[in-house]
Each structure stands twice: as C-alpha cells, then as structure tokens.
Amino acid sequence: MRKFSGESAEGWALRDYGSTNYSRFQVLTEGQPAWAQGDRGAVFYFDGLRFWRPTRGGKSRIVASWQSPSYGWVHESLCSCRQCCRERMQHQVA
Ligand SMILES: [Zn+2]
C-alpha cells in the first residue's frame, strides 16, 4: 500500500485517476486508496482504512470520515477493485 506523504493539490492533479466518482461509502466499501478534493481545494486521501488531509507544512493528519467529502472520490486509473473493473468493462463494450 502506498504511503501518503502530504501531497499538495498540485501533486494530486498530476496523478492518473479513473474517471468514475465514488461516494465516501463506496471507497470505504472497496478499501482501495482514493483521493477527493474538498472545500477550498483541500485534498483528502483515503488509505484503505483511514481518511487523511494535508496540513500546512507538508504533513498530513487523520480526520474522521464525516470530516471528509461525502462524494467525489476517485481511484487510480489502474485500480483493480470490483467497481473500477466494472466501469472499464462498460467502457470497452460501449
Ligand atoms: Zn477502484
């Protein structure tokens, strides 16, 4: 599992993400790393167990799940969870 290293919003934008937005409940269910952009551009990260958000100074801290965005979560583009695989299959068929 990749470690979160207090990435900036710029680092977040440079990654390769899937096009599907998931709800917080869905990312909790899959337990895959996920990212979401919250209010004022804050980037939240889910490591499969806990939610994190960066703080000033390049560090990050754990936040309660209800403090993270309830929608707008994305997985990496090559994520292999059931939901991402289903999405990719649908795109291939269409
Ligand atoms: Zn996924």
What does this structure look like?
The chain has 94 residues and is α+β, with helices and mostly antiparallel strands. It has one domain. It is built from 3 helices and 6 strands; from the N terminus they run H-E-H-E-E-E-E-E-H. The chain has helices at 9-14, 24-30, 82-93; strands at residues 22-23, 34-37, 43-46, 51-54, 60-63, 71-73. Strands 2-3-4-5 form a 4-stranded antiparallel sheet, with no helix packed on it. A two-stranded antiparallel sheet has the order 1-6. The model is unreliable at 1-6 (pLDDT under 50).
How is the topology of this model organized?
Elements: H1 9-14, E1 22-23, H2 24-30, E2 34-37, E3 43-46, E4 51-54, E5 60-63, E6 71-73, H3 82-93
Antiparallel strand pairs: 1-6, 2-3, 3-4, 4-5
The structure holds zinc ion.
Zinc ion binds at residues 30, 32, 75, 79, 81, 83-84.
